[in-house]
Specification:
- It is built from 1 helix and 5 strands.
- It has 95 residues and is mainly beta.
- A 3-stranded antiparallel sheet has the order 1-2-3, with no helix packed on it.
- Strand 1 and strand 2 form a beta hairpin.
Length: 95
């Protein structure tokens, strides 16, 4: 593993642990020392550690009655909006 900035002691492939979110579980943010903060979401975007693919993540959130709102620049999750319906969940191998 290589670091772009030697002062970055928490960097994991240019991501840094950001704690445990109530719904998303363990999350990361882009390393502020290596990459800086996203100009659009101002560093608020979160990246779930337990992530397989975007369709699976959307289905996982839909099963909870939530729609993730993603930053258009860094693709981090900036909000979770509740929905009134629970759609059918499609297994990972079927999409």
């Amino acid at each position: 593993m290589s670091f772009l900035n030697d002062s970055c002691s928490w960097c994991i492939e240019q991501n840094t642990p950001a704690g445990i979110h109530d719904i998303l579980g363990p999350v990361y943010i882009p390393c502020p020392a290596c990459l800086g903060r996203c100009q659009l979401c101002e560093g608020e975007g979160l990246f779930p550690a337990d992530f397989t693919c975007l369709p699976c993540f959307r289905q996982q959130m839909a099963a909870l009655g939530l729609v993730p709102i993603m930053c258009a620049h860094c693709s981090g999750v900036v909000d979770l909006i509740p929905t009134d319906r629970l759609p059918e969940v499609i297994p990972h191998g079927d999409h």
